Amino acid sequence: MGIIEIENMEFFAHHGCYEEERLRGNMFLVTVKIETDMEIVSKSDNIADALNYQTAYNVVKQEMMIPSSLLEHVCSRILTALYNEFNGIEKATVKVSKLSPGIGGKVEKTSVTQSR
């Protein structure tokens, strides 16, 4: 078993509860952590046997481009899309962070993390 992490992927997207947030857009960070069996790929050194990081990034990017009201919904969609794309995921965790959220004070980011 092994863990693949793709950390702090940056996206400009239009997620938010309020119309202004969806119209203006914002910067988001996404980190995925995927637990999978790495025995075969560790011996073969062949990308065909691996969970391809580029494909995982593209799955996340595609889901980030679909506007949602809540980060919880974005996380859930990303998890579902990863499980649909790849066989052999034992566990996946997705963290979506909204940078500089407009919540009435100086806040670096708000984040939601989900695992399946």
Would you kindly provide a written description of the structure presented here, covering whatever features stand out?
The mean pLDDT is 95. The longest helix has 15 residues. This protein has four helices and four strands; from the N terminus they run βαβαααββ. A four-stranded antiparallel sheet has the order 1-2-3-4. It is α+β, with helices and mostly antiparallel strands. Helix 3 runs antiparallel to helix 4. The chain has one domain: GTP Cyclohydrolase I, domain 2, CATH 3.30.1130.10. It is elongated, with a radius of gyration of 15 Å.
Describe the secondary structure blueprint for this structure.
Elements: E1 2-13, H1 19-24, E2 26-36, H2 39-44, H3 53-64, H4 71-85, E3 89-99, E4 109-115
Antiparallel strand pairs: 1-2, 2-3, 3-4
Helix pairs in contact: 3-4
Radius of gyration: 15 Å
Q: Name the strands of the widest sheet in spatial order.
A: 1-2-3-4
> What share of the residues does DSSP label as strand, in percent?
35-45%
Please tally the helical runs, counting DSSP H or I stretches of 4 or more residues: 4
CATH architecture: 2-Layer Sandwich
Coarse morphology? elongated
CATH topology: GTP Cyclohydrolase I, domain 2
